[in-house]
Design a protein that fits this description.
- The chain is an alpha/beta fold and about 475 residues long.
- It folds into two domains: about 270 residues, Aldehyde Dehydrogenase, Chain A, domain 1 (3-Layer(aba) Sandwich), CATH 3.40.605.10; about 180 residues, Aldehyde Dehydrogenase, Chain A, domain 2 (3-Layer(aba) Sandwich).
- It contains 14 helices and 22 strands.
- α3 crosses α4.
- The protein is globular, with a radius of gyration of 23 Å.
């Protein structure tokens, strides 16, 4: 059994059970087998975690360290994650269903944020501002918020923790992490490595539960929690935003997307197909930045579909533990039913299924064939809603103006992609797409060095790059007066 496969939560440096003694099972979505069980914690347990994080912060066990000391401890954590890549990836694949090679890739990608923020810890600079009068000096400091509550999703169970916790800890904050109920085991494994890295007790706490609402409510309303970072659905994000309003709490939200993927006549079609495969089918299409609405210009429409169809039908579908698997299962029954409903609705509205469009019960209960649908009716659900699954919906367009109008006619604005070899068009479209991140001739765009986040209902704040630390700091202005220089 893996030494990182844990069955207890982490509060104040101790591995603990739920106060009411409940556990819940974590199952492999590929075969339904139980991998393990974790504490089904409640608001009382979450309060203990908040108290521990508060003590660690105000006792200066973390915020009182020098930036160099925090940097070194984060580097220790980074190296331990790197050393345990295979073990973490196996846990991740077992609980999320993603192919083992994708899980290994996530460990590397997620750990890049830990490395980045370990380095950024020493670059949280203040400012000296020129004073308007001769006897004053004006200084600006960046100080840590305090306790930060981090609520993370199932689809990137390591990267969404490291992207948040790395920034928070670099700034000097302490954290309470509430991982998704589908994938708590990866979170516990990473937290164990934080402990092994020498990060003091109470600095990193993990509360596991399958009853998230009361704990989310506590995070938002507790005066001892000074910041909330949430990645998940827009609907839940809006609830947390409202609940945090009374305390005027600092909130960072990375919410749902509905990413357009535009292929212009000037595009290199082979590169566009490659980009579509990378963006759409990673983690079985279950990513917030996954290409969702495909707009293909009429001049290369047939060629693009022909190339994409060949690639989609060659995908290797199976259990994530196999090294050659490219597409795994959907995460749970709710998501599976949603995907089935999308396709059924499209067929009923006379959309054309070019490939797939059916469950794969011979592989497993939660497997669905990678699907291409064209002739999308505007009233079809896949025309308007985020799919979050392995469905490519293709819409033909005539002009750039038409494509941009439809692409921007959404209240979501996380990521967008387009392919064009026309440099004039590249700059024009990149500026006009109403999204927080744009991939130009590229289907994979996220990196630790770049700001991650959206506009409109896709969230507020940014993660990654040097801007990511801003979500966990307050700016303090200091005015030194009555100085004598003569």
């Amino acid at each position: 059994m893996s030494s990182l496969l844990l069955s207890k939560g982490l509060i104040d440096g101790k591995w603990v059970s739920a106060s009411i003694g409940e556990q819940f099972e974590v199952k492999n979505p590929a075969n339904g087998q139980v991998i393990g069980s974790v504490p089904n914690m409640n608001a009382k347990d979450a309060q203990l975690a908040i108290d521990a994080a508060k003590r660690a912060f105000y006792s200066n066990e973390w915020s009182g360290l020098t930036a160099k000391q925090r940097s070194q401890l984060l580097k220790n954590w980074y190296h331990l994650i790197e050393k345990n890549t295979q073990e973490i990836a196996e846990i991740m694949t077992a609980e999320s269903g993603k192919p083992i090679n994708e899980s290994k890739g996530e460990v590397v990608y997620g750990n890049s944020f830990m490395e980045w923020f370990a380095e950024e810890a020493r670059r949280i600079y203040g400012e000296i501002v020129p004073a308007p009068v001769q006897n004053r000096e004006l200084m600006v400091l960046k100080q840590p918020l305090g306790v930060a509550a981090l609520i993370t999703p199932w689809n990137f169970p390591l990267a969404m923790i490291t992207r948040k916790a790395g920034a928070a800890l670099a700034a000097g904050c302490t954290v309470v992490i509430k991982p998704a109920e589908d994938t708590p085991l990866t979170a516990l494994a990473v937290a164990k490595l934080a402990q092994d890295a020498g990060i003091p007790k109470g600095v990193v706490n993990v509360v596991t539960t399958n009853k998230a609402a009361p704990i989310g409510d506590l995070f938002c309303k507790s005066p001892d929690v000074h910041g909330i970072s949430f990645t998940g659905s827009t609907e839940v994000g809006k609830i947390l935003y409202r609940q945090s309003a009374d305390g005027v709490k600092k909130v960072s939200l990375e919410l749902g997307g509905n990413a357009p993927f535009i292929v212009f006549d000037s595009a290199n079609v082979e590169k566009a197909v490659e980009g579509a495969m990378a963006s759409k089918f990673r983690n079985c299409g279950q990513t917030c930045v996954s290409a969702n609405r495909f707009f293909v210009q009429e001049g290369i429409y047939d060629k693009f579909i022909e190339g994409l169809k060949a690639r989609v039908e060659s995908l290797k579908i199976g259990h994530g533990s196999s090294a050659d698997t490219q597409i795994g299962p959907l995460i749970n029954t709710m998501q599976y039913n949603k995907i089935c409903g999308f396709v059924e609705d499209a067929v009923n509205k006379n959309c054309k299924v070019i490939s797939g469009g059916k469950p794969l019960k011979d592989v497993g209960e939660l497997f669905y064939a990678p699907t291409i649908i064209s002739d999308i009716a505007p009233e079809a659900k896949i025309y308007n809603e985020e799919v979050f699954g392995p469905i490519v919906s293709i819409i033909k367009f005539k002009t750039e103006e038409e494509a941009l109008k439809i692409a921007n006619a959404s209240q979501r604005g996380l990521a967008g992609y387009f392919f064009s070899e026309d440099i004039q068009q590249v700059f024009r479209v990149a500026r006009r797409l109403e999204v927080g991140m744009v991939g130009v001739n590229e289907g994979l765009i996220s990196a630790a060095e770049a700001p991650f986040g959206g506009v409109k209902e896709s969230g507020i704040g940014r993660e990654g790059c040097h801007h990511g630390i801003d979500e966990y700091t307050e700016i303090k202005y200091i005015c030194l007066g009555n100085l004598k220089y003569n």
